[in-house]
Design brief:
Layout lengths: L1 E7 L3 H12 L4 E5 L23 H14 L4 E3 L4 E5 L2 E5 L5 E8 L3 E3 L7 H6 L7 H4 L8 E5 L1 H11 L6 E5 L6 H9 L3 E2 L3 E7 L2 E6 L4 E4 L1 E4 L3 E3 L2 H4 L24 E3 L10 H18 L8
Parallel strand pairs: 1-2, 1-6, 2-3, 6-16, 8-9, 8-14, 9-10
Antiparallel strand pairs: 4-5, 5-6, 7-15, 11-12, 12-13
C-alpha cells in the first residue's frame, strides 16, 4: 500500500493529524493497535466545549467517526519496524508494507503500574487516577495518596496539595532524599513507610506498608513513570531523551527525514489539548512539504 502520509497511532493525537490531512485532501492512512491511553479516561473535564466532561472512549469514538467520514482508512494492527528507502518511509506490520512519503508517530506512552491487581476497575471507579492536571480539580477535598519513588513522586504530591489538605506520599523503593522530605513536610504532605501492597475495598484503595500498618485512601495517583513507545523512531536515529521521549523541533520533526512525533511520545505536557496542537503543527508541515495536489477544473 502506498500513501502520502502514514499516521501510526489512533489516539487523540493521531486521529487529529489524520483529520487535518484528509481535509487538506491528502492521501492518509492510520494504523492503530487499539491501545490508546485515552481509552482509560473515565471522564475528561478539561476539554473545551464539554462542561460536563467526556469519557475517553466517547472522545475516541467521535474522532474515529469523523476520520471515517473523511474516508481515511484505519487499519487495525501494530507497526513492527520502520525503514527509510529512496525518500520514503516503509512501515512493516501484519499486512503488506505501507510505503509513505511522510510518517507521523503518535504511539504514546504506557504508565508503569502500582502493585494493584485489578487496577483497571479502580480506574473505572475513579479511585485510581493518573493525571492530576486533568482531574485534580475533581479530587479536591479528598483523602489522596501519591505512590512512587520519592524523588519522582514529590512533584505530583506538592501539586495535589493545591486541591486537598490531606495528601500523603507513599514511597516505593528505598530512595533517600532529605531535601525532598523537608519540602514535602513543609507543605503539609505526610510521608508513610515504604509500600508493601495495595488492594481495593468499597470506595477506597487500601495501602499496606512495610511496617505492617495499613491505611485507606479515597484517591490514589501513581507516579511510577512510563514506558515510551518511541522505539520505531529511535531505531531510525530520532532525537530522544534518556527516558525515551522524542525531542522535536517547532514543526514536530524528530531528526529523521519525513518523520514527526506528536502527543505523549514527545517530551512535553501529556495532555489531550497539547496532543491536538502537536497534530495540527505536524499535519500542516507535512502537507506543505509535499507537492501540492491542485483541484481539477
Amino acid at each position: 500500500m502506498r500513501t502520502e502520509v502514514l499516521v501510526i497511532g489512533g489516539g487523540p493525537a493521531g486521529l487529529m493529524a489524520a483529520i487535518y490531512l484528509a481535509r487538506f485532501r491528502r492521501r492518509v492512512v492510520v494504523i492503530d493497535s487499539g491501545a490508546s491511553r485515552a481509552a482509560l479516561i473515565p471522564r475528561s473535564h478539561n476539554l473545551p466545549g464539554f462542561p460536563n466532561g467526556l469519557p475517553g472512549t466517547e472522545l475516541l469514538a467521535r474522532m474515529q467517526r469523523q476520520t471515517e467520514e473523511l474516508r481515511v482508512p484505519i487499519i487495525s494492527g501494530t507497526v513492527t519496524a520502520l525503514e527509510q528507502r529512496d525518500g520514503t518511509i516503509i512501515a512493516a506490520h501484519e499486512g503488506d508494507p505501507i510505503v509513505a512519503q511522510r510518517a507521523i508517530l503518535a504511539t504514546g506512552i504506557v504508565d508503569k503500574q502500582t502493585p494493584l491487581a485489578d487496577w483497571t476497575l479502580a480506574v473505572r471507579d475513579g479511585h485510581l487516577r493518573y493525571c492530576p492536571v486533568c482531574d485534580g480539580f475533581e479530587a479536591r477535598g479528598g483523602k489522596i495518596a501519591i505512590i512512587g519513588p520519592l524523588g519522582h513522586a514529590a512533584g505530583k504530591a506538592l501539586f495535589m496539595r493545591v486541591y486537598s489538605s490531606d495528601v500523603t506520599l507513599i514511597p516505593v523503593g528505598d530512595e533517600q532524599n532529605d531535601d525532598k522530605r523537608r519540602e514535602l513536610q513543609a507543605a503539609g504532605v505526610r510521608i508513610t513507610p515504604t509500600l508493601k501492597a495495595l488492594h481495593r475495598e468499597e470506595r477506597a484503595i487500601v495501602a499496606t506498608f512495610a511496617d505492617g500498618s495499613s491505611e485507606r485512601f479515597e484517591i490514589v495517583y501513581p507516579a511510577m513513570g512510563a514506558d515510551v513507545r518511541s522505539d520505531l523512531a529511535i531505531k531510525l536515529g530520532a532525537r530522544h531523551t534518556s527516558d525515551g521521549f522524542l525531542e522535536v523541533d517547532a514543526k514536530q520533526r524528530c531528526g529523521v527525514e519525513g518523520l514527526y512525533g506528536i502527543g505523549d511520545v514527545v517530551t512535553d505536557l501529556h495532555q489531550i489539548a497539547v496532543a491536538f496542537g502537536h497534530a495540527a503543527v505536524a499535519a500542516c508541515h507535512a502537507h506543505h512539504s509535499l507537492p501540492m495536489r491542485y483541484a481539477e477544473p
